[in-house]
Amino acid sequence: MARYLITGGCGFIGLHLTAALLQAGHSATVLDDLSSGNPAKLPAAARLEEGCVTDAGTLARLAEGVDGVIHLAAIASIAAAEANPERAHAVNAGGAANAVAAATRSRIPLVLISSAAVYGDAGPGAVSEAYPCRPLSAYGADKLQGEQYALKAAENGLSATIVRPFNVYGPGQDASSPYAGVISRFIAAALSGDPLRVNGDGSQSRDFIYIDDLVRLLIAAISQPRPGAVIVNGCTGIATSVRELALKIRHLCGGDIRIEPGPGRSSGVAHSLGDPRRAAEQFGFRAEVALADGLQRTLAWQRGTDLQ
Ligand SMILES: NC(=O)c1ccc[n+]([C@@H]2O[C@H](COP(=O)([O-])OP(=O)(O)OC[C@H]3O[C@@H](n4cnc5c(N)ncnc54)[C@H](O)[C@@H]3O)[C@@H](O)[C@H]2O)c1
């Protein structure tokens, strides 16, 4: 049994991760400022510390009593970060710097959650971790800066795994947020009988990874720390166009759901597809949940009938 500190543990990924760590017999301390997270959903066995990752002292104190840190806390969408760039920079880059410093000081491993947004628009092929990073958003640039703090500290003894998740989806993702991901938005629209709005011609594609798969990767990473730093994609290696996604969701939901053109999107990334090989080599990780199954589980949850 190990003790872990999870920043952002009241958010979508953090709640699943915390529950899975507790389930596996570990103990979990969560640091969250509750700016978007929901403490009511945190398992009772987790200890919640309400605070901000921009507070280096709090992070350092909490890291003293644990065996590893998983740093998830962020202003977690490109659009949300654009709405308040100064705050987003302080949280996304500054919070990562503080998590790196806390783990380094306590000599414990760190799993730092970055993002596929660091790649920018890499074209339709699968991007490996060696692909040059040219983020198109301030969010992606801040995530890349966070990675650089970890890489630098790893030269001086920190064990750091940097995970770059692609598009994570699943039960618990907030469809009512203005920053909701495309899957939860489409399912919410379909369940309300509204049209599914597909931006552009719908050929833009994404690598959708189911939440349970990503959580398995994060747990593998924190429980098998490597000397120095390793960067891995959190992805499936399978691209799905947004139009294909809309058709799948219409099929699953049944009924007479219209698919309509939407207003377009500003992030500029036409294709986002990860190469999953390094995560397989390093941690024996492979995504297991097929999109059709993951969509079914997400739909069941959004319908209010969680089948999990
Ligand atoms: N969901 C995805 O598809 C995806 C893809 C790539 C990367 N990520 C990254 O994964 C991480 C988690 O994303 P998520 O989808 O669970 O987002 P989320 O918004 O659901 O969760 C983020 C959590 O961090 C907390 N938080 C925000 N600012 C904080 C601060 N200053 N101090 C302490 N806590 C703070 C929020 O209250 C929330 O509980 C983020 O780093 C995000 O950038 C997510």
Q: What is the CATH topology of one domain?
A: Rossmann fold
Cα separation of the termini: 25 Å
CATH class of one domain: Alpha Beta
**Bound chemical compounds:** nicotinamide-adenine-dinucleotide
Fourth-level CATH superfamily of one domain: NAD(P)-binding Rossmann-like Domain
Task: Just name the CATH architecture of one domain.
Answer: 3-Layer(aba) Sandwich
Overall mean confidence score, pLDDT: 94
Query: What structural class is derived from the secondary structure elements?
Result: alpha/beta
Oligomeric status: single chain
Describe the protein's architecture and organization.
The chain has a domain at 3-168 and 209-235 and 272-288: 3-Layer(aba) Sandwich (Rossmann fold). 39% of the residues lie in helices and 17% in strands. The chain has helices at 12-23, 56-64, 78-83, 85-106, 138-155, 182-191, 211-223, 242-253, 277-283, 291-302; strands spanning 3-7, 27-32, 47-50, 68-71, 110-113, 160-165, 167-169, 196-198, 205-206, 208-210, 229-234, 240-241, 259-261. Strands 3-2-1-4-5-6-11 form a seven-stranded parallel sheet, with helices on both faces. The longest helix has 22 residues, at 85-106. It is globular. The mean pLDDT is 94. Nicotinamide-adenine-dinucleotide binds at residues 7-8, 10-14, 31-37, 52-54, 72-76, 91, 95, 113, 115, 165, 167-168, 181.
Characteristic key phrases:
308 residues; alpha/beta; Rossmann fold; seven-stranded parallel sheet; two-stranded parallel ribbon; globular; binds nicotinamide-adenine-dinucleotide
